[in-house]
Design goal:
Elements lengths: L3 E6 L2 H10 L3 E4 L12 H10 L3 E5 L11 H16 L4 E4 L10 H13 L3 E4 L9 H11 L3 E4 L10 H11 L4 E5 L7 H8 L3 E4 L2 E5 L4 E2 L2 E2 L10 E5 L1 H12 L2
Parallel strand pairs: 1-2, 1-8, 2-3, 3-4, 4-5, 5-6, 6-7, 7-8
Antiparallel strand pairs: 9-12, 10-11
Helix pairs in contact: 1-8, 3-4
Length: 249
């Protein structure tokens, strides 16, 4: 399997930047500052119309954790159906119960929607909040999940590299392991070498100022200093750097 860099995108502009820089696959979101939420349908449509990217669409109705009410899950299923009908290549989602175990029923329903359209099923970093990663990945394999995005249950993938390595060694022939969080051109190859995986997930984040963010005594800032007037974007330069770093070996 060839090495893959998946770029985490929060907008159509992000997707365009990733495409222009040479990326082949993206995870498409909105609100990356909340960990990534479901993108707008227009974002998906424009990305598919104007690039040849493989697009894995996030389905996440809100921030915080991954234990969803019935109403929230209704929205997730409807969004998944809409995205797949409009040519998403796959769906990234994660459903847990209140005790931190895989929500089997919700996960199966989401898988059924994606597979109906021949798409790829990705269980995202909700996996990093499970009680038992080994029991959980076995359940996801049995359910038919294609890929798991994980930082090895740590804040950054480099900190969780031992867990990622164990998951790859034990389950890598049954499910794809995609490492994400804190991965960049300086550490991507080291993580691949250490863990034996072939895929990494990177935001390649940079900042752009919007001077209308903080005005008078009103602030719409979501980033801390020195970026309190900025919003995040995917940097073409950083995408190129991580792609080039993995081409060298």
């Amino acid at each position: 399997m060839e090495k893959i860099v998946e770029i985490c995108c929060g907008s159509y502009e992000d997707a365009w930047n990733a495409f222009q820089a040479g990326a082949k696959r993206i995870e498409l979101n909105s609100a990356l500052h909340l960990g990534g939420l479901t993108p707008s349908l227009a974002t998906l449509i424009l990305t598919k119309q104007n690039t040849n990217l493989k697009v894995i669409t996030m389905i996440r109705p809100r921030g915080a954790g991954f234990c969803y009410t019935e109403k929230e899950f209704e929205i997730m299923k409807a969004d998944a159906e809409i995205m797949m009908k409009n040519h998403a290549d796959g769906i990234a989602f994660g459903c847990l119960d209140k005790d931190g175990y895989i929500h089997i029923s919700q996960t199966k329903q989401m898988i059924d929607i994606v597979k109906k359209y021949g798409g790829e099923v990705v269980f995202h970093r909700a996996f990093d909040c499970v009680k038992d990663p080994f029991q959980s990945i076995e359940q996801l394999i049995q359910l038919g999940v294609d890929r798991v995005l994980t930082s090895g249950l740590e804040d950054k993938a480099i900190q969780g590299k031992d867990v990622i390595k164990r998951l790859q060694e034990k389950y890598g022939k049954e499910i794809e392991i995609l490492a994400g969080s804190g991965i960049n051109a300086s550490n991507a190859q080291d993580i691949l070498d250490y863990t034996g995986i072939k895929q990494v997930h990177s935001s390649c984040k940079d900042w752009v100022q919007d001077p209308t963010t903080v005005c008078h005594h009103v602030s719409y800032s979501y980033a801390s200093k020195p970026h309190e007037s900025d919003y995040d974007i995917v940097s073409k330069i950083l995408v190129q750097q991580i792609l080039n770093a993995l081409k060298k070996k």
